[in-house]
Give the backbone structure.
Amino acid sequence: MATPHALRLTDFESYRPTILVIDDAQINLTLLAKGLESDYRVVTAESGLQGLELAESEHPEVILLDVMMPGMDGYAVAKQLSLTPELAQIPIFFLTALTDQESQLRGLELGAVDFLTKPFSLKILKKRIANVIERDQLRINAMQYQTVLNDLLLEQTGAKNILESVFNASSDALIVTDRAFQISRVNSNAEKLLQSTATELIDTPFLRFCFQHPDGSSLAVEAISANTSWIEGKLCTPDGQSLWVAILCRSFETAQEETGYLFSLQDISVRVALEEKRLQAELQRNDALLELGIQKAAMDEHALVSIADVQGNIIYVNDKFCATSGFRPDELLGHTHRMIKSDVHSPDFYHDLWTTVSAGKTWHGEITNRAKDGSLYTVASTIVPWLDEHGVPYQYVSIHTDITARKKAEEELALARQRELSVGSSIQQSLLFGKPPTDLEGVSVACFTEASSGVDGDFYTFTEINPLCFEVLTGDVMGKGVTAALIAAGIKNTYYKTVTTLMSQRQGKAVPTPAEIINAVHAIITPELIRVESFVTLSLVRVNRLEKTMTWVNAGHTPTLLVRNDGGEVLELLGDNLPVGVLKTEVFVEHVTPIEVGDALLLYSDGISEAMAPDQDEYGLNRIKTILRLGQATQTHPSVTLNSLRSDLSNHTRHLGPADDSTAIFIRINPLRNGARGTLLDRRAPEFLEIPRRLDKLGLIRQKIAQVALDQSETFVHMLQLAAFEAATNIIRHAPERLKNAPLTVSVARTPLAICVELIYEGEPFFPPSAPSPDFSGHSEGGFGLYIINSSVDQVDYCSPMPGMASIRLLKKLKQLPDR
């Protein structure tokens, strides 16, 4: 801190330390401020630069610092603080969702006192802050007391005469005693050797220091004083410490004609220790020679050992090597390890191995070999080159451990884990994610969710109030994994029970408002969430087609994005409420926003907007809005817009997968059908299908084409179905599927002149180089499939309707105009 100030321990009861919280998420700032303000003065900053300014002006006792922030991240803030002398000593707590060891080490290397992973307990955080502040205050007090002590010592230091200078300049430890061996003077080396000050030593008996012969027998001070040569032995201090010294005593006469003694001591601990190490090394060498034979026998029992010459020819194998490979020694000696080479590894693998050992470096890795009977076995290998005096390899020693059984167990464990995650994900899809109603009039809906750890705490559900009114509940529970998923399931169940109870109380005469529902849910679950130290962000959106309104409540969730049809304006509908589970006294307020035909809504979790690129660039709202505007401009189906968003997000994160749970729901308000206008006119509005990219689901495309072309000839319908089926088959078989569970979207539209079938999928568009010629080989790859497509319809277009999306558009002209 800039100006350390000492406090008595009793002052802490009235003193309120300052804590600076730096985080770009307003909800985190609010939660931490409310949780800490009872004990501390809390100041907050929404960015790294603002945090540095407040640190200079406020001089806080502790800084709570988020790692992942746009612009200047937490690491950069910590580094800048360390470069400013008056701020370098402020204790820093890193608060982050990062859990990897590398991120934690980086934070601690920058001087952080702690690295807490979200979610964390507020009680534990407060206790750690209190401990750090108390330790820091004690350190400041100690520094000031040391300064006072040094000043006192300097004041008491006077000039020394020449004799004292010579006395203190000696390289030996010098001790002067009277004839009764009472210490009267010592030099600085004696103070260091005896680890006591002159004040502590003078006027004390030298006899309190015990001396021993090297054999451990006692050596009296009187005997030392009577000897005229150096004596080596062990000096034992009163506190039980000992060290090896050489000691010499000289007697002298004082001015008062009294006998005195001058003892010279030399510390020989290093020399004695080196001698002991030399003797110990001799013993260890002898023991090593004895153990070498035992170790070789043990290695032969456990490890596969082989030695090859510089050309790679085997010159030695042990019995374990032969037993595992199935070859006899005479079959292996003189040959290279190619005899046991399998086809599992690429040529580059063996090239890198040989390049490493040829350069004189040790190679570590796993190798799968083929035994004599053709079976495969895997070994963990260490290949060590033996080098000559010029550092050039002349032999290679290979030590292998058979890990075949372990690898098989790991594979089975991985499969079991994958099955567990698959089952968990399947259960989650059925419990936490409600399917959109299929009979909603004039509404198109697309959804997706992707957990960061197999199962997560995101959830959503649709409730149809009547054919022209529905609502969507979305939520995100703090944390990840099974615990978050269980809490989410409980909240969703509470929502269902709450709606049922409120409807029952009104006897079906009135529908409860979104605010009434959320406040009722809040009253039930908030006490339980506080008890388990968790919370949930919620968003409840009700769309009423008849009243042309959307009524919504936002409880700390990400803003709902409303995309206007007239100009593509994107509105952020956020609100001011905290998440459910934070404060029991929170009252949730609803808002009403008008909607029109053509408008669209996006409800999403922060796993999308806060996704980070490898360079810590946040995806952000602006990128989401750009995708939404493009989708609105082209009036693409919600599934196409949503998958374009997923593709752009995946490219931004370099396909690393989500670091947080990601969920999104996209809803478009379409015109209501007018039954009086006739079925054929109704067909002029495109009809959409979302099907999995699986061959066994393509029959749905045939059915939809048959419905739209009901009045056309059987040949017309068959040709259009054939072209669509062949194009869809090519997409499923040949287009890379980078996004998990991304559907194939099929649009079937009829005009007075033609029927257009468009197959839209995630990926890059395919452009045939030229008009295909029939191969008649029976394989699509030979051009026959493309020939079928072009021959069955009047026009084929390959397009990219949205970023990251591709489509094949098939148009076939009607043979006759439909009846009006």
